[in-house]
Design a protein that fits this description.
Helix content is about 45%, strand content about 20%. It is flat, with a radius of gyration of 45 Å. The longest helix has about 45 residues, at about 355-395. The strands form 3 sheets. The protein has a 5-stranded mixed barrel. Strands 7-6-8-9-10 form a 5-stranded parallel sheet. The chain has helices at about 15-30, 65-70, 110-125, 155-165, 185-200, 220-230, 245-250, 260-265, 270-305, 310-350, 355-395, 400-405, and strands at about 35-45, 50-55, 60-65, 80-90, 95-105, 145-150, 170-175, 205-210, 235-240, 255, 410, 430-435, 440-445, 455. By secondary structure, the protein is an alpha/beta fold. Strand 4 (about 80-90) and strand 5 form a beta hairpin.
Length: about 450
Amino acid sequence: MQTGYPDARPRALSVSELNRQARHLLESSFMQVWVEGEISGLSRPSSGHWYFTLKDEKCQIRCAMFRGANRRLRSAPRDGDQIRIRGKVTLYENRGDFQIIVEHLEPAGLGQLQQAFEALKMKLQAEGLFDPARKKPVPTTPRHIGVITSPTGAAIHDILTVLARRCPAIPVTLYPTAVQGQAATAEIVGAIERAQAHGVADVLIIGRGGGSLEDLWCFNEEAVARAIAACPIATVSAVGHEVDVSISDFVADLRAPTPSAAAEKVSPDQREWLARLDGQSTRLAQATDRYLQRQHTRLEHLSARLRDPRRELQEKAQRMDELDTRLHRSLKQRLEAHRVRTGHLQQRLAMQSPRRALDTAGERVQQLDERLAKAFQSRLQHQQEQLQHIAQNLQLVSPLATLGRGYSIVRDDDNTIVRNAEQLSPGQTIRAHFGQGNVSAEVTEINSNNDKLLTIE
């Protein structure tokens, strides 16, 4: 029965809408959580994903750890293991299951990686590999810098950027290696050995950008630590961010918080050199002026004391002028020599440039050239289409089309278009232009009636 009033009942949510809103509420309330408990019901289907239940003595929660995250683990957990997980709280909408998407998994208590880290640290420390007395001094002005890192990572870009800004004259050699994964340990050791065999670098930067403990683990391997400790070249460890600490940091001759900081530590600042040279030049000029002023003051004092003989005084004054001239000439020559040397150094600095920067610039030029060719071809095609369209429009309004229908254009001796017979006089030469060709004729008669009859020969 209709009552004439709108339905006052509240709108009901669908099951999908309710689950979706619940998922959004959970994900916005719990950005990331650590949870500890016992693993149960572990399932590992062929997809590579893991599904299990995490429980304690009272409650349990479903967990899912996808293949991209669990591949980083060295060993798979088992039912009954006490574990700690880090992940995001969410809701599986299809079943309405409350669950955690696991991003990291480790044994409860101190993690396996952390235990291995502490054990190796104590072992190497007991052997004296961390002793400051065995560390080599890092050169403040290296002749050649070697870098051991990934050729595609952010670390090499940061290092080369800092070196190009501070002192581009220092040559840099990259010894490429993997910095993450199972093969990274052997590749890093091999890169250190290649740098030693190459024999050009007097300092090595070893490291990579930031990451998790698993990502940085190759720099906590014993083989890498011993290779760094045995390296005769001064080493700088630059692993991760400032808060990251690795075994490589302890055995290296110098630890830098980031790859950029490592480049700062091993390279002199050319701007400081130039500023120091300018300061020395200024001090030299000031000292010269003071010396000359003292000499002039002394000369005036001696001149005041020596009243006679005048001849000797004049000779002394002349000698002083000669010395003063020679002094100025000598100082100018020395200053000019310093300027020439400075110019040569600046030219050498300008001529030196990291080859990788040139290669990058060459690739950039090639890309721009290709883009320019494509843009030019597109523009040319567009202009051709516009020209064809304009030609068609011109053809529509062209007087040649009118001439083709039997009309003609008449011009007088001055090449002026004749629009009226009264513009002409007998005996005058005219030219008539037709759709095909033109003729010249002489006016013999002009009819002045309304028909404007014009007789020509």
